[in-house]
Automatic annotation (TrEMBL):
Keywords: DNA-binding, Nucleus, Transcription, Transcription regulation. One of its GO terms (biological process) is regulation of DNA-templated transcription. Residues 175-184 have a biased composition (Low complexity). It comes from Musa troglodytarum (fe'i banana). Residues 170-223 are annotated as: Disordered. The keyword DNA-binding applies. The keyword Transcription applies. It comes from the Eukaryota. Residues 4-163 form the NAC domain. This is No apical meristem (NAM) protein. One of its GO terms (molecular function) is DNA binding. InterPro entries: NAC-dom, NAC_dom_sf.
Length: 242
C-alpha cells in the first residue's frame, strides 16, 4: 500500500477487527497485515506518541489508531499484564465483554481502558481511551456461559482514540443491524404513515447506533463511552486474563 487516496477512511467493525485482522495476525496468514495495523508494545510509549507509529490508513487520521500488541513476557509466564507507561498507566473500566459475530458466534473479548497521567492510584484521568480486543479460538462456542472460551494472548488488537464532546466519524457509522432496521422502518412507513400528536417523535428516532455494536446486553447508549456487560459466570471464567 504505497499511498492512501483522498477520502479513504479505515473504519473497520469489531467483527472485521477480530475475524479478519487479528485472526490473520495470530495465524500468520498474511505478510502485508502490518502495513495496515503495525505491531507495537504500546505500554512502552505514552498514548500521544503512538499516532505517528500507526499504519498508513490511520497515520493521517485524527480520530483513531490501531496496533497489534504482543504478549508481555510476564504474561507468558502466567502473570498479569503490566499497563504502565513512561508517564502514566492504563486503567480498565467496566467489565470485559464478549464480542459476537453477525451469526451470533463468540469471536473475542473486549476491554475498555482510560489513560491516567501520573502514578497509580493518584493519576489524573486524561481524554485518551483504548479498546483492547483478544480473539478466541476459531470455531469456539459459548452456548454454556460457564464454559466461555478462553481468549488467545499471543497478540491483542488495540484501538486507541481520544474522548471528545461530539460524535466522530466512527461513532456515526451505523451497524449492519441498524441499517437493516432502518430499511424495514422506512418500508413500513411507506405502507402505513405514522400519525403522531404535535411535538412527539417516533421512538425509533431516538435510537442511537454504536460503533461496532456486536455485544448482546448494553447498559446505555453513550457513543464512545458505551459499557457492555456479560454474565457473572462468563466474567469469572475470564478473570485470569485481567
Amino acid at each position: 500500500m504505497s499511498s492512501v487516496p483522498p477520502g479513504y477512511r479505515f473504519y473497520p467493525t469489531e467483527e472485521e477487527l477480530i475475524g479478519f485482522y487479528l485472526q490473520n495476525k495470530l495465524e500468520n496468514r498474511r505478510e502485508d497485515m502490518e502495513q495496515v495495523i503495525p505491531v507495537a508494545d504500546i505500554y512502552c510509549f505514552d498514548p500521544w506518541q503512538l499516532p505517528p507509529m500507526s499504519g498508513e490508513p490511520c497515520r493521517r487520521d485524527g480520530e483513531q489508531w490501531f496496533f497489534f500488541c504482543p504478549r508481555q513476557e510476564r504474561e507468558a509466564r502466567g502473570g498479569r499484564p503490566t499497563r504502565t507507561t513512561p508517564s502514566g498507566y492504563w486503567k480498565a473500566t467496566g467489565s470485559p465483554s464478549l464480542v459476537y459475530s453477525s451469526t451470533n458466534r463468540v469471536m473475542g473479548v473486549k476491554r475498555t481502558m482510560v489513560f491516567h497521567q501520573g502514578r497509580a492510584p493518584v493519576g489524573t484521568k486524561t481524554q485518551w481511551k483504548m479498546n483492547e480486543y483478544r480473539a478466541v479460538e476459531e470455531g469456539a462456542s459459548s452456548i454454556i456461559p460457564s464454559l466461555a472460551p478462553q481468549p488467545r494472548s499471543e497478540y491483542s488488537l488495540c484501538r486507541m482514540y481520544t474522548k471528545s464532546g461530539c460524535l466522530r466519524s466512527f461513532d456515526r457509522r451505523p451497524s449492519s443491524s441498524s441499517s437493516a432496521a432502518a430499511a424495514a422502518t422506512n418500508t413500513d412507513a411507506r405502507r402505513t404513515p405514522e400519525v403522531l400528536p404535535s411535538g412527539c417523535v417516533p421512538a425509533s428516532a431516538n435510537r442511537p447506533s454504536s460503533y461496532g455494536d456486536s455485544s448482546r446486553h448494553s447498559v446505555g447508549q453513550r457513543g464512545e463511552d458505551d459499557l457492555w456487560l456479560i454474565t457473572d459466570d462468563e466474567c469469572y471464567s475470564l478473570q485470569d486474563w485481567f
